[in-house]
Amino acid sequence: MVEWITTNGLTDYDAALTFMENRVAGIICGTAEECIWLLEHPPLYTAGTSAKPNDLVDPDRFPVYTARRGGEYTYHGPGQRVVYVMLDVGKRGRDVRQFVKDLETWVIATLDSFNVKGEIREGRVGVWVERPDKPLNADGSVAEDKIAALGIRLRKWVSFHGLSINVEPDLSHFEGIVPCGIREHGVTSLVDLGLPVTIDDLDVALKASFDVTM
């Protein structure tokens, strides 16, 4: 059984880390169920294990936290659904690459509920959408924006951290970092794409898609 927890309001980042540490320890010991935690954070930046100092463009804009997850710099803030996944990867095949792919597939299936075509790109973590409404790239290709970020960590085959999907965050807040170290592409959200989607709508789609993809 996977326990779903939804927290309203804004959750302190340090408090979230403490919760995840304790829950993962419980899952490892067999005293706690797997857990998916849906929440929002106040505006902040997190640095993954591959974060490059130069990618923190405005270090004084929001608090910056060191997160021992994979990946580079990421923004979290109101209007963005953060999904922390505390799942037993050991009983899901012990294949980290496949687990990450499954998470991406989950996000893509969720976005499909809103007729948004999410895609993954070789060498770029996360989920992307094409933007034919924007000018073409210099090489003539269609512009792409990131709509979901992903970064996990494993401890004894139990995952924590997870993913984030942009519903209606202030996209200007991403300007304080180079999101995930990628300079040549932008960031978007469901509302930025013209969809009147709420956090609650997304939660319903996430739960329905989880049962199919994970």
Number of continuous helical runs? 3
Order of helices and strands: EHEEEEEHEEEEEH
Radius of gyration: 17 Å
End-to-end separation in angstroms reads 12 Å
Oligomer: single chain
Described by the principal axes of the CA atoms, the overall outline is globular
Major sheet description? 8 strands, mixed
Are there runs of 5+ residues with pLDDT below 50, and where? none
Kindly describe this structure.
- The protein has 214 residues and is of the alpha/beta class.
- Helix content is 23%, strand content 31%.
- It has helices at residues 13-29, 96-112, 199-213, and strands spanning 2-10, 34-40, 44-47, 64-66, 73-76, 80-86, 119-121, 124-130, 144-155, 158-166, 186-187.
- α2 crosses α3.
Provide keyphrases for this structure.
three-stranded mixed β-sheet, globular, alpha/beta, 11 strands
Can you summarize this structure?
With 214 residues, this protein is an alpha/beta fold. 23% of the residues lie in helices and 31% in strands.
